[in-house]
Design goal:
Chain lengths: 115, 112
C-alpha cells in the first residue's frame, strides 16, 4: 500500500490552463504539506494543513489554492498556469500536530510541465 | 528566520570510502535536524534525524553529529555503496513557526 499517493504523476498542459493535483495519505497523519521542487532540486514549502486547517501559507501566488476536504486529503488547484510553474510538486504528511518535529512522508511527486 | 546552508552541492567518492555532508543553521532555538535522501524519480525519504539534546546518533553506516555551539550538523556515510547515490537534504526546524527549513541539497555520486 502506498502511504502518500499523488495523482497525476505527470501533467503536461498549456499556459493559461487550470489544473489540480490530488494527494491522499493512509498513514492516519494529522498534518499534510505541499512542496515545490525546481530544476535545481531546491525544496520550497508552499502550504501546510493540520487537521484540515491551514497553518503554513508561504509567499505563493494566489493562483495556487490548497483544499483539504478531510485530514487524509490535501489537493492543490492552480489557476492560469504560467511557464514558471513548471516543477515537481510533492505532497507530504506527518504526525506532529503541526509542530514540524516528526518525520515527513513524501509522495513520489507530480511533474508539471507548462508548454 | 532560520537559514540553512548545505555543502558541498556535489560530492563524488569512491565506492567503499566515506562521505561527509555539512550543514549550518542560523537560529540557535532550532531543535530538530533531519536528513532526507531523494532517489531519482522519488520523493525525499527520512534516513536519520537528531534532536538538540543529543550530540551524535548512529544507524548502521550512517551517523549524524550536531554541534549546537557552532550551529552545524553533519551527515556521515561510511563504506559507501552504489545505492547511496542520491540527493541528500538537511533541514532544521524553526522554533518560531514550527516549519522545516531545508538545505539546498547535495548530489552524492558513488564511483565504482
Amino acid at each position: 500500500d502506498t502511504a502518500v499517493s499523488q495523482t497525476p504523476k505527470y501533467l503536461v498542459t498549456q499556459m493559461g490552463n487550470d489544473k489540480s493535483i490530488k494527494c491522499e495519505q493512509n498513514l492516519g497523519h494529522d498534518t499534510m504539506y505541499w512542496y515545490k521542487q525546481d530544476s535545481k532540486k531546491f525544496l520550497k514549502i508552499m502550504f501546510s494543513y493540520n487537521n484540515k486547517e491551514l497553518i503554513i501559507n508561504e509567499t505563493v501566488p494566489n493562483r495556487f489554492s490548497p483544499k483539504s476536504p478531510d485530514k487524509a486529503h490535501l489537493n492543490l488547484h492552480i489557476n492560469s498556469l504560467e511557464l514558471g510553474d513548471s516543477a515537481v510538486y510533492f505532497c507530504a504528511s506527518s504526525q506532529d500536530g503541526g509542530g514540524g518535529n516528526q518525520p515527513q512522508h513524501f509522495g513520489d511527486g507530480t511533474r508539471l510541465s507548462i508548454l | 528566520g532560520e537559514n540553512v546552508e548545505q555543502h558541498p552541492s556535489t560530492l563524488s567518492v569512491q565506492e567503499g570510502d566515506s562521505a561527509v555532508i555539512k550543514c549550518t543553521y542560523s537560529d540557535s532555538a532550532s531543535n530538530y535536524f533531519p536528513w532526507y535522501k531523494q532517489e531519482l524519480g522519488k520523493g525525499p525519504q527520512l534516513i536519520i534525524d537528531i534532536r538538540s539534546n543529543v550530540g551524535e546518533k548512529k544507524d548502521q553506516r550512517i551517523a549524524v553529529t550536531l554541534n549546537k555551539t557552532a550551529k552545524h550538523f553533519s551527515l556521515h556515510i561510511t563504506e559507501t555503496q552504489p545505492e547511496d547515490s542520491a540527493v541528500y537534504f538537511c533541514a532544521a526546524r524553526e522554533d518560531s513557526n514550527y516549519q522545516l527549513i531545508w538545505g539546498a541539497g547535495t548530489k552524492l555520486i558513488i564511483k565504482p
